[in-house]
Design goal:
492 residues, alpha/beta, Rossmann fold, 3 domains, six-stranded parallel beta sheet, two-stranded antiparallel sheet, 61% helix, binds adenosine-5'-triphosphate, binds magnesium ion
Length: 492
């Protein structure tokens, strides 16, 4: 595009907002392919444009297409990147000399000559036709390719199939359903008991809601489970965090609540009779005590606590009327002592409910995840997380020399779009792929190998975890240090 105008996709000339000189200068610097760079800039500021310019400049500089690897996170972003590279190169084939010169200058090369024009016109065919040509792909596609090449080293089925997010959701639904069926078939199984516990503390949720909740947080639960070593160990951590003893049970606390030293349930009937004698509010308390006697277990505890707590479970302003207190000092003292005693017990009961529910969800998530895992294994399937995981495991296992010769021997330039969406594990894969760029061993005569990443931290799909901005920045600093130490140029 020249002078703030460009040919639209349907051949129409479209007016664009003029691009400020400062932006152009920054873009030109970022698209200079002789220096590695990390660029963070706002939405629509031209990051993908610069990345595409860099690819084109690399090709114009004579870099073979197969030595360039462009990766991104989503299929849409990869398609967008590829489309822009190929439509630009395709367009060049159709330009006359003057227009092509202008386009090459726009790409950042000052004085194009006839030879450069000739190679510029060949780039389109060359990038498309070279075996293993220009690689513009998602990180998942890259991993798929690596795993297919090295199934033995990666410890994956030789002819694995990849499932996308939709298949994955369907399979998870099935895995969840199986937990439900198993649990309802045998309520005393681990899953059956866990479902019971998870549901007991939230009367308005259904089986399905509970399993769903557990499965949605599955990764989180499983990672935690793994760190802790077992479900029991994870539950012990919850106990510690909540300040309750591992051996503490809700039942024991509940017995303690209704069977204390001041107003044990054996005395409720007799006390209710005395409460009858005074005001309306005291009669209501008498009703509450009698009602509590109808129930047992948790329900009795809840009914008894109504004597001391309001509907929104805050302490009542006055448990007894002034008149009652004046006439029944001994009984009033029992109620006061009871008010003080039950506060900490209520807290403990709440903490134990949270602990038991967490443990139950952990149990359900583990069983559902195991079902899902089993189906994948039986059918030789890998999901997107497996692709990343297995690739990383393989790269961690093999020596960096092996990686160099088998994997990245062909790649001299790695370009990453939407880098803010690159997870820590995906960055680790990138780090393996470019590990030899800076080690000297991998440097070939006269070849400057580069990494280029563009992203916008504000657009990160991970930003809800607060991880991405730090990740992008941390990787930039790490790589910058490595590159500079290796005597390579790196633009921050
Ligand atoms: N120097 C430039 N010359 C011509 N067009 C440009 C230039 N810089 C940006 N543009 C155009 O501006 C638009 C937005 O640019 P681009 O898609 O590269 O931004 P981005 O930063 O990648 O956006 P996003 O954050 O959405 O990924 C595109 O149509 C692009 O072609
Ligand atoms: Mg973009």
């Amino acid at each position: 595009m020249v002078g703030g105008w460009r040919l639209g996709t349907r051949g129409m000339v479209m007016a664009l907002r003029p691009i400020p000189q400062a932006v152009r200068a920054a873009q030109a610097r970022a698209s200079d392919p002789s220096s590695s760079a990390f660029v963070s800039a706002n939405a629509g500021s031209g990051k993908t444009h610069v990345l595409v310019q860099r690819v084109i400049r690399l090709l114009l500089d004579g870099v073979a297409p197969e030595r360039i690897l462009c990766i991104t996170f989503t299929k849409a972003a990869a398609a967008n990147m590829a489309e822009r590279v190929f439509s630009t190169l395709g367009h060049w084939v159709t330009l006359d000399d003057a227009a092509l010169d202008a386009a090459i200058v726009e790409a950042g090369i000052a004085r194009p000559d006839a030879r450069l024009r000739m190679s510029a016109r060949k780039l389109f065919a060359c990038a498309l036709e070279t075996p293993g040509g220009l690689k513009v792909q998602t990180i998942h596609a890259l991993c798929t390719r690596l795993l297919q090449q090295f199934p033995f080293e990666a410890n994956v089925p030789a002819r694995f199939a990849v499932i996308d997010e939709r298949d994955q959701n369907e399979m998870m639904e099935r895995a969840n359903l199986k937990v439900l069926l198993d649990a309802s078939r045998d309520v005393n199984s681990a899953a059956g008991r866990a479902l019971n516990t998870a549901m007991a503390s939230a009367a308005d949720v259904t089986f399905k809601d509970v399993v769903r909740e557990a499965c949605l947080s599955r990764d989180h639960f499983l990672a935690w489970n793994q760190r802790a070593g077992s479900i029991e160990a994870a539950a012990a951590q919850v106990s510690a965090a909540l300040g309750v003893a591992t051996g503490d049970t809700i039942e024991a606390v509940e017995r303690e609540i209704v069977n204390g030293p001041h107003l044990p349930n054996s005395r409720w009937k007799e006390v209710a009779v005395i409460l009858e004698s005074t005001s309306k509010s005291d009669r209501k308390q008498a009703d509450r005590l009698r009602e509590a006697l109808v129930f047992s277990g948790s329900a009795q505890v809840d009914a008894y606590l109504d004597v001391f707590l309001t509907d929104d479970r805050t302490p009542r302003d006055s448990v007894l009327s002034k008149k009652f207190r004046d006439n029944n000092a001994v009984i009033a003292a029992l109620f006061d002592a009871e008010s003080l005693r039950i506060g900490p017990l209520i807290e403990r009961r709440r903490a134990l409910t949270i602990r038991d529910r967490t443990q139950a969800l952990l149990q359900i998530a583990t069983v559902a995840a195991a079902n899902y895992q089993r189906e994948k294994q039986e059918r030789g399937l890998l999901d997107y997380d497996d692709l990343i995981e297995k690739t990383l495991e393989m790269l961690d296992r093999v020596s960096s020399g092996w990686v160099h010769y088998k994997l990245d021997r062909g790649v001299d330039h790695v370009l990453i779009d939407e880098a803010q969406d690159t997870s820590p594990k995906q960055w680790d894969i990138v780090a393996h792929i470019i590990s030899e760029f800076t080690s000297g061993k991998g440097a070939r005569e006269g070849v400057e190998r580069t990494i280029f990443a563009v992203g916008d931290e504000k657009q990160s799909i991970f930003s809800f975890q607060g991880a991405a901005p730090r990740e992008f920045d941390a990787r930039r600093r790490l790589l910058q240090r490595k590159f500079v130490e290796a005597g390579l140029k790196f633009d921050p």
